[in-house]
Automatic annotation (TrEMBL):
InterPro entries: ERV/ALR_sulphydryl_oxid_sf, ERV/ALR_sulphydryl_oxidase, QSOX_FAD-bd_dom, QSOX_FAD-bd_sf, Sulfhydryl_oxidase. Keywords: Disulfide bond, FAD, Flavoprotein, Membrane, Oxidoreductase, Signal, Transmembrane, Transmembrane helix. This is Sulfhydryl oxidase. The keyword rRNA processing does not apply. The gene is QSOX2. The chain crosses the membrane at residues 299-316. It comes from Nothobranchius furzeri.
Amino acid sequence: HDQTSVPVQLYPGGDPVVKLMETLSDWLLSLPLQQIPYQAVLDLVNNKMRISGVFLGAELRWVGCQGSRPGLRGYPCSLWTLFHVLTVQHDATPTSLDNTGLEGEAAPVLQVMRRYIRTFFGCEECGRHFETAAASSLEQVKNRDQQILWLWNQHNRVNTRLSGALSDDPLFPKAPWPSPALCPSCHEEKNGVHLWNQNQVLGFLRHHYGASNLSPRYSLSPPRLPAALPDPVRTVQPQAEHRGAAAVKGAERKPEEQPEPRPGHPALRGKPEEVPEHGGRGVWVLGLGFNSVDMSLCVVLYACSCLFLMLLFFFFKLRSRRWKRRHHLHV
């Protein structure tokens, strides 16, 4: 249940997603079962009960996590993204988890992430590595700032370990992030040794993963975003940032020049060319870009066409009868 209640309280995305997670969370609480059939959860996610306002897009499209070919980035990248956003959102709204049973934990988002990866993540080796890291250092996290930085640090450790592996996208190679080009103030050097300025990193992460920096461009239902806050860290748009934070507000780049966000980065201000823009509410069906409004219009047009044909039929039938009657009188 924690794995649904935390996104419900902290996820800054669109209303249909939040409504779906709320429904799933309430449904799980109401079931007196030790185990829940997978098909039952799938039916709820697919909205077999026709709950108003609950829907997911029919097409799976990666935006900030689009890989250069199938099998790269995608889901693992989006999982990192989600929990980076949740740690920052928890820092921005510390009372969001009140009355959830998690308010007493120093790092509730990380604990939920740990349980999720241990239970559901498909890569067992990845899960073992994450569990080892959590077991050795997660207890040292005492506040929300440390929660944000712990996840960032672990993500960089994973990227260093997987750099050059088969899962590494050659167009977006794994490297410590943010780069000096993206956040110059995050990097320092002492006696020839690279050091992270963690205060600057923390400010950068708060801005980059903050709700005001998320773009609803590819959402079927745009989220309600707070007013933009001033950027606490001076960031520079790199000319060729291979992992870069996706383009932030005010960036003026052509689609083909947009840097791909770091694995785990949300679709931020920008316009990746891989995904055509579409908008509007409604369930996208048939994979052809039709939504429920389009389908309703089709039904109305179909009904009007049928009615028109019926009127034509009765008109000509009545006219035929009159012609036969006149012909009979002449005879």
